Amino acid sequence: MGTSTPWSGGSSGMKEPQPAIWAFDDEGLLRPTEFHYSGTQDSDFTDKDFEFIATFKGQLALRGLTNIFGLARYPGDDFDGSCEFTQGRANINLQPKDYPETLQAFSTIWFFSEPLWKRGCFCKCKEISRGHPHTGHRGGKQREGSSVGNLGRWME
């Protein structure tokens, strides 16, 4: 998993942390906002990746969602999902097997990969639970059938 706590990495023979989540800034540039560590380094973006990013950004802009959605690194077909919560400045991610029975959360990441679809894989945030220290994940109540709820429909 990853962390949002500042970390310089690259020490004691370790490689630099890599971007895991990107968001568009106020100038429309895609910037990394969260990082992960792996001894195996990800490949650079390809021309095909840049074409997808441009199309994705255009679709978000058409729907007024540029400040809502971004991109996440594909975690691999064996990923089971996660739930993120914040304590102080640290974001903590739980695996589904560690979710408390009383967890009240909503989906925050959707994966467009058949192995993950078939398992019903998604990431959650416990924003709607008591004690959640921040807001702003979403602009208002999500409605069934909204463009936010049907992201995949317009990305086809």
Description:
This protein has two domains: 17-73, no CATH class; 77-139, no CATH class. The strands form two sheets. It has a four-stranded antiparallel beta sheet with strand order 1-3-2-4, with no helix packed on it. Strands 6-5-8-7 form a four-stranded mixed beta sheet, with no helix packed on it. 17% of the residues lie in helices and 24% in strands. It is built from three helices and eight strands. The chain is globular. A hairpin with a 2-residue loop joins strand 5 (82-87) and strand 6 (90-94). The protein is an alpha+beta fold and 156 residues long.
List the helices and strands and how they pair.
Layout: E1 2-3, E2 18-24, E3 30-36, H1 47-62, E4 71-72, E5 82-87, E6 90-94, E7 106-110, H2 114-118, E8 122-125, H3 151-155
Parallel strand pairs: 5-8
Antiparallel strand pairs: 1-3, 2-3, 2-4, 5-6, 7-8
Strand content: 15-25%
First-residue to last-residue Cα separation: 28 Å
Unreliable stretches covering 5 or more consecutive residues: 134-156
Counting structural domains, the number is 2
Task: Report on the biggest sheet.
Answer: 4 strands, antiparallel
Would you count the extended β strands for me? 8
Give the % helix: 10-25%
Please trace the helix and strand order, writing H or E for each element.
Answer: EEEHEEEEHEH
Spatial strand arrangement across the major sheet: 1-3-2-4
> What is Rg?
16 Å
